[in-house]
Amino acid sequence: MIKDALRSRFRGALVGSAVGDALGAPVEGCTIEEVGSFYENGWELKSHYTDDTEMMIGVAESLIERHGFDGADMARKFIRNYHAWRHYGPGTRAVLKWLEAGEHWEVASKRVFNGEGSYGNGAAMRIAPIGLFYHDDVDTLWEIAHKASHITHSHVLGKEGAAIQAYSVALALRGQREGMLTCLGARIKEGIYRNKISKIERLMDADRELLIEELGNDEAAFNSVPTAIFSFLRFHSFYESVIYAISLGGDTDTIGAMTGAISGAYYGEEAIPQEWLTALAKAEDEGGKGLRYIEWLADELYRIKFNV
Ligand SMILES: [Mg+2]
Question: From the CA of 180, how far away is ligand 1's center (Å)?
Answer without folding.
Answer: 26
